[in-house]
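wait is this the right file?? whatever heres the structure
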């Protein structure tokens, strides 16, 4: 495989699988050795085993954190703290991309950062939508309501006292005017957990003070 030809063909793709390289001339052994060398030299970035992208200087299209999160571990959608930060519902930036999956909990780390996947039951894998990232690529992300519900489900201890200070100081929630109360209550019922219902009721009572 010639690097210049590979770069020319790769520039138009945000990422490729190892099958792209297997279709090139050369034995599997030779191709694997070249991939290792190109990653070491910074020509390619290894997202995970079998998944690659060109370095940022040579790639002709953008590659967002959320798109990477979607493709690293499927099925999954971006949720929890990263989604809340995206919607402006927490004040701070989030440095690890958080997602939800019906598969087992898993973490990945590559040149683009850390990617965390939290397990939920299959029946709770809902409440996400397809939208466009900053590069006009399709990505899956929780709605604002579901990002909060996932957070309550996965992060809130059962004995936590639900009051304004919890939402304001512990979770640092803000800009809750984007939440649809009816939609959130309907989603909360699918969890079939009294804890979730109590947290949602408490949140909606405090909503005006957190907006």
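ok assuming it is, sequence goes like this
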């Amino acid at each position: 495989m010639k690097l210049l030809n590979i770069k020319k063909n790769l520039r138009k793709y945000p990422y490729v699988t190892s099958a792209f390289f297997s279709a090139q001339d050369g034995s599997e052994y030779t191709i694997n050795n070249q991939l290792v060398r190109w990653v070491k030299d910074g020509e390619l970035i290894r997202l995970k085993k079998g998944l690659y992208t060109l370095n940022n200087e040579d790639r002709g299209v953008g590659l967002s954190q959320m798109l990477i999160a979607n493709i690293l571990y499927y099925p999954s959608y971006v949720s929890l703290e990263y989604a809340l930060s995206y919607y402006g519902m927490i004040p701070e930036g989030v440095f690890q991309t958080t997602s939800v999956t019906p598969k087992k909990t898993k973490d990945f780390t590559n040149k683009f950062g850390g990617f965390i996947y939290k397990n939920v039951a299959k029946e709770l894998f809902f409440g996400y939508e397809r939208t466009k990232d900053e590069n006009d690529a399709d990505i899956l992300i929780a709605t604002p309501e579901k990002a909060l519900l996932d957070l309550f489900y996965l992060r809130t201890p059962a004995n936590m006292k639900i009051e304004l200070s919890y939402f304001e100081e512990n979770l640092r929630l803000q800009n809750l005017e984007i939440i649809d109360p009816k939609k959130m209550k309907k989603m909360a019922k699918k969890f079939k957990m009294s804890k979730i219902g109590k947290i949602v009721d408490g949140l909606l009572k405090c909503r005006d003070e957190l907006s």
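Residues 3-54 form one domain. so i think its the right one actually
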